């Protein structure tokens, strides 16, 4: 990319930091070792008594500044949400306001999970109120805060559905229907939950094909998993009819909450006929992503399913109390525990703080901005967006270009690429979700990056990225055979920086 092109495109000039020492990217701490005190060895030089030394303790010896610089450098050699926009459709890496970190860091937050219920009433009250907020936002009657991520929430939801069917003598139901455009975790959760997965094609508009659904439904149907808006950002207009069709055969309707930020404060899955849902608190509210964890993926259900939720849940005015208060309890037919203690408590504090701070109006405003931002960005780019009208995300097609090359090249323009090659219904998909947090100026920067890449030739794209610390990595090997131990690297005698 020439600097002129960067200027023409209205881009910030972007060069990622790159620290090279002796031909190697920022060395590992063990390689920077500046041993000052000999610990172990033959013990003769050690200031410690012999019985306190050992040979095996190979901790690197570094000063505090060396350590701080090491981690700062590493953080400068990657692209993160604090570096610039990150429009990762569906996977949603959005900027989380830092005040939630302050709230989670308040002294009262660090409670020991083994403390008695009476001594952690504030903790339990927050959990109770969060259960209540989430229930009201989703239109659900009962909520568990235990699951540690959206995908874990899906698994819990499916197990709750299974327990419900089993309890009602309907254990023969062994199929879960999943649209072919669904997120991979839906298929995985249904399969892990013990079900046969029936894949449902989309119609020409990119929505649920009602005829195909009719054909797939039957006495073996345990549930249909849907996200709404779907992964193309399209609202399932026939959702009430879909719910009726599923319920008519005795099945349950599962809502994948990944796209709830498109509806927040405006429409509720419970009102559409969904029976069970998970909340991706990192997408809809303000918490870390489960993958960068710890995360949380609470699950909400309608009344009939509440007795099957994981334990413990929190209730008010517990019968075992002489004084009104909050207590943990085990739902009558619980599927059991799915996480230690209260779930990822401090993540829940962040979600609570965000919801409380925004309130009803703020949440509705967030969804309006999420939808507006996606539509504004799509209207500004050259790439074709075949399916409309979309909500908080859209799926553009890279056309003749390879979407993976486009993604790598976008990094050279100082923006993170969108999700690529999925859903497959759009050729060379660029699934883009700018989120509600970005300003018009940032959306313009993103649009300029899309358009600059759209105008480039194959050779340029195939050589990208050229301005990042690590260049063209072999991503298949990186994902399938990662070398995660510094010892393995040392044995190989080579760096893993690229
Ligand atoms: C549509 C959809 N469903 C479920 C998930 C799983 O959520 P999590 O990443 O919190 O496990 C994702 C993740 O990005 C998603 O995009």
Task: Describe the model.
By secondary structure, the chain is of the alpha/beta class. It has three domains: 3-84, no CATH class; 111-343, Type I PLP-dependent aspartate aminotransferase-like (Major domain) (Aspartate Aminotransferase, domain 2); 361-470, Aspartate Aminotransferase, domain 1 (Alpha-Beta Complex). The chain is 36% helix and 10% strand. The protein is built from 17 helices and 14 strands. It has helices spanning 3-8, 29-32, 64-76, 99-104, 121-138, 150-167, 184-192, 210-216, 239-248, 269-272, 281-284, 345-380, 403-412, 440-454, 458-463, 475-480, 486-492; strands spanning 20-21, 24-25, 142-144, 175-179, 196-200, 221-226, 252-256, 276-278, 299-301, 313-316, 326-329, 394-397, 419-420, 429-432. The chain has a seven-stranded mixed sheet with strand order 3-9-8-7-6-4-5, sandwiched between helices. A three-stranded antiparallel sheet has the order 12-14-13, covered by helices on one side. A two-stranded antiparallel sheet has the order 1-2. α5 (121-138) packs parallel to α12, α6 crosses α7 and α12 packs across α14. It is globular, with a radius of gyration of 25 Å. The chain binds pyridoxal-5'-phosphate.
């Amino acid at each position: 990319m020439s600097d002129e092109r960067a200027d023409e495109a209205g881009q910030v000039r972007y060069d990622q930091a790159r620290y090279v020492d002796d031909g190697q990217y920022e060395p590992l701490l063990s390689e920077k070792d500046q041993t000052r005190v000999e610990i172990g060895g033959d013990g003769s030089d050690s200031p410690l008594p012999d019985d306190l030394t050992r040979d095996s303790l190979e901790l690197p010896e570094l000063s505090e500044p060396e350590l701080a610089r090491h981690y700062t450098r590493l953080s400068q050699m990657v692209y993160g949400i604090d570096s610039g926009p990150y429009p990762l459709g569906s996977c949603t890496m959005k900027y989380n306001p830092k005040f939630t970190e302050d709230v989670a860091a308040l002294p009262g937050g660090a409670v020991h999970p083994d403390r008695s219920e009476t001594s952690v009433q504030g903790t339990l009250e927050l959990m109770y109120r969060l259960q209540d907020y989430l229930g009201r936002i989703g239109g659900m009657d009962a909520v568990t805060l235990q699951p540690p991520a959206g995908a874990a929430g899906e698994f819990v939801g499916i197990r709750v559905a299974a327990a419900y069917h089993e309890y009602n003598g309907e254990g023969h139901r062994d199929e879960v229907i999943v649209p072919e455009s669904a997120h991979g975790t839906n298929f995985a959760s249904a399969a892990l939950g013990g079900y046969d997965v029936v894949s449902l094609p989309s119609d020409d508009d990119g929505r649920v094909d009602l005829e195909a659904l009719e054909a797939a439904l039957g006495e073996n149907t345990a549930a249909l998993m849907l996200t709404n808006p779907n992964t193309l950002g399209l609202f399932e207009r026939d959702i009430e009819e879909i719910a009726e069709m599923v319920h008519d055969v005795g099945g349950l309707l599962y809502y994948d909450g990944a796209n709830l930020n498109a509806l927040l404060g405006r429409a509720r899955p419970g009102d559409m006929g969904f029976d069970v849902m998970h909340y991706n608190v990192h997408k809809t509210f303000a918490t870390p992503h489960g993958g960068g964890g710890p995360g949380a993926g609470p699950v909400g259900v309608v009344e009939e399913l509440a007795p099957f939720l994981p334990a413990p849940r929190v209730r008010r005015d517990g019968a075992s109390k002489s004084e009104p208060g909050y207590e943990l309890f085990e739902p009558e037919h619980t599927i059991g525990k799915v996480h230690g203690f209260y779930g990822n408590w401090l993540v829940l504090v962040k979600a609570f703080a965000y919801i409380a701070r925004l309130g009803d109006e703020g949440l509705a405003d967030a969804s309006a901005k999420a939808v507006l931002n996606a539509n504004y960005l799509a209207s500004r780019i050259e790439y074709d967006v075949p399916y409309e009208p979309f909500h908080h995300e859209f799926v553009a097609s890279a056309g003749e270009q390879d979407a993976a090359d486009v993604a790598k090249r976008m990094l050279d323009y100082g923006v993170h690429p969108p999700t690529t090659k999925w859903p497959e219904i759009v050729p060379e998909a660029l699934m883009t979700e700018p989120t509600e947090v970005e300003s018009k100026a940032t959306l313009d920067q993103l649009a300029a990056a899309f358009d600059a890449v759209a105008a480039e030739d194959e050779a340029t794209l195939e050589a990208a990225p050229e301005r990042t610390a690590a260049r063209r990595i072999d991503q298949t090997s990186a994902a399938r055979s990662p070398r995660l131990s510094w010892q393995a690297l040392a044995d190989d005698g080579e760096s893993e920086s690229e």
